[in-house]
Amino acid sequence: MNEAIKKNGIKFGIISAVISIVLTVLMYAIDINLFANSWIGIGMVFFYLALGIYVVSTTKKEMGGTINFKEAFTVYFLYSVIGIVIANIFNYILFNFIDPSAKEQILEITINKTVEMMQKFDTPKDILKETIKGMKENDQYSIANIIKGSAMGIVFSSIIGLIIAAIMKSKTTYNE
């Protein structure tokens, strides 16, 4: 593996994890309701997408302005996996050991927001009750769900990484 790929993947993976941890701590300290704010979630997705593009771009520059598809994908994948894993380990520790009651608060807030949204769409009461029951039975911060969420995040990031790698790879020229 190219040294620039390894260095940038690890460095920016750690940077993204630290940013995620800082944002989590800020949301926790400022207002726990922020965990159920979909605009914050969407904003974070776009931020990490932009950071991923920056990682690939920086690596391409460090490699003399050329990067193939595999190299571009590898640096994005490495950045994503490190960031996701470290951030989710922190979330597991925060919500299971440091303050387990916070996850209960977040669940109640999420249920209330879900009920509001479903009522706007005139969702039948039986479906609403079943949704609430399912949310209450599912501990989103359990080790199994953290692992499952990490895996889904890695799959989603991989798909995005494939697209970014295809766009940012150096164009090949053929000499005839």
List the helices and strands and how they pair.
Elements (H helix, E strand, L loop, with lengths): L2 H28 L7 H25 L6 H30 L1 H21 L4 H13 L5 H26 L8
Helix pairs in contact: 1-2, 1-3, 2-3, 2-6, 3-4, 3-6, 4-5
Question: Which characteristics define this entry?
Answer:
176 residues, mainly alpha, 6 helices, elongated
What report would you give on this structure?
- The chain has 176 residues and is mostly helical.
- It has six helices and no strands.
- It has helices spanning 3-30, 38-62, 69-98, 100-120, 125-137, 143-168.
- Helix 2 crosses helix 6, helix 3 (69-98) crosses helix 4 (100-120) and helix 4 runs antiparallel to helix 5.
- The protein is elongated.
- The model has no long low-confidence stretch (mean pLDDT 94).
Quick recap:
This protein has 176 residues and is mainly α.
Please give the alpha-carbon distance between the first and last residues: 30 Å
Order of helices and strands: HHHHHH
How large is the share of residues in beta strands? under 5%
Structural class: mainly alpha
Poorly predicted parts = none
How many helical elements?
6
Radius of gyration: 20 Å
Question: What portion of residues is helical?
Answer: over 70%
Largest sheet features: none
What's the average pLDDT? 94
| Overall number of strands | 0
What form results from the Cα inertia axes? elongated
